[in-house]
Amino acid sequence: MGKSHQKGWIILRGKKWYGYFRREVIDPETNQPKATIVPVVLGAKSELSKFEAKEALEREITRVTGSISNDRSATNVSVTFGWFVRNRFFPLKEADWREETAKVKKYLIEADLIEKFDEDRLEDIDKFALQTHLNKLAKIQSKDRVLQIRAYMQAIFSEAVDQDYLSKDPARKVKVPAHLRETDKTVLTWDQLRSALDHLELRDRIILELDMTNALRPSELFGLRWKCFDRAAHAMALVETTYMGEIRDWGKTKGSFRTIPLSRDLTKELCVWELECPDISPNAFIFPNSDGGFIDTGNYRKRVLHKLARDLKLPKLTFQVIRRSIATLAQKKGTVKDVQGVLRHSRAATTTDVYMQEIPKGVRATIDSIHRELRKSTKLGVAGSGRKKEAPRSTEKKVGFGNGKTRVSGGRILKERRSAGDFKTPSQKGFENLLPNATKPGEAEPLSYWIYWWT
């Protein structure tokens, strides 16, 4: 088939020209193409004549329909944003997403993108519409969520171009808004963490102490079974996780599953809890709920952590806050690689850039330490000067000056005129002490005096 030869029709409504033409779109209910009439605003009557309005409509028809082929490209079939995401984008990405991950990603895309652009045609969505929508999200959503939505936005329109639904990607140059809401960076102190442990009974205290000591994720913590506990080796094996009511045989990262060391005191407390636990069979959960299953993370967060934060007047207490606090406070307990090992991150950058926060007291101590180093005295001279220590200036010293000798005293230079005998040859000895008019030796004392002048 060749190009569409329809010319459409125009109508004057009020003070504007409106054009109409037919085209095929995908019916979201039947998932089949159907004919529809597309309206187009052509311009004001004062700016366009009827002939110019017809020409504008023809240009729009050519732009939208273009050449017609047997595929469902944007050049012959109009699809909405919502239809494309649900029927073309999600099916492709589900192969890369885990089931639980897919639920979260789909929810975010539905809430922040599809709800806004659901019925809009793909070719009608431009960079301006996407950028203004992202700017609005930045005012009400967290920084991480805005960054996620921008990534999804670019992935969706890039896929639309790859599948020939669009000829140009409008999301390619959409920018992250300059002003984003700061991500929560709450960090608790050692005293606050200790006070939380002191206010809990045995089971909950062990749960939080295990979480604090080994920075476990809640999905790992509540998936522990008694067969994972090695008393002799003081260790715990991570072999599965729990999430949204399901048991998973995989963790968040490749390094999530490993055997982690336990302190001797924590091993003893686990042995004490073992005596009180209702079921200590190998496959039983170490921290079961009332039904013997694993504890729900959201339930525990609300029932125990939030209540504890209110009682102790803590700024915030969640598993994420605990994990961030341990990563930050552990800066003084080991190297970055050590902390990375505790948190079991794949990259050290995740540990340092996301979890570790600066400690104000630590910054102050570092500044004071640097200052003390700069103030230390050295063998070369006075502390902080970097110069060789100079002896105090002498009030008087002799220096060479012309044909005589000089002495410096304060700001005055004293010059000693040499006696006449200093310039005599050996044959002239005996005449060096004569006065200027004397002709015989011994007539006078040696001629010597000082001349003073200011410099």
Features:
four-stranded antiparallel sheet, alpha+beta, four-stranded mixed sheet, 14 helices, 455 residues
Polypeptide structure, described:
By secondary structure, this protein is α+β, with helices and mostly antiparallel strands. The chain is built from 14 helices and 13 strands. Strands 1, 2, 3 and 4 form a 4-stranded mixed β-sheet that branches. A 4-stranded antiparallel β-sheet has the order 10-11-12-13, with no helix packed on it. Strands 5-6-9 form a 3-stranded antiparallel β-sheet, with no helix packed on it. Strand 2 and strand 3 form a beta hairpin. The protein is elongated. 18% of the residues are buried. The C terminus is likely disordered.
Q: Tell how many strands the DSSP assignment holds.
A: 13
Helicity level: 25-40%
What does the largest sheet look like? Answer: 4 strands, mixed
What is the SS-derived class? Answer: alpha+beta
Give the SSE map.
Blueprint: E1 9-13, E2 16-27, E3 32-44, H1 50-65, E4 77-78, H2 81-93, H3 99-117, H4 127-140, H5 143-162, H6 190-198, H7 202-214, H8 218-221, E5 229-230, E6 235-237, E7 241-243, E8 246-248, E9 259-261, H9 264-276, H10 297-312, H11 319-329, H12 336-343, H13 348-355, H14 360-375, E10 396-401, E11 404-409, E12 412-416, E13 450-454
Parallel strand pairs: 2-4
Antiparallel strand pairs: 1-2, 2-3, 5-6, 6-9, 7-8, 10-11, 11-12, 12-13
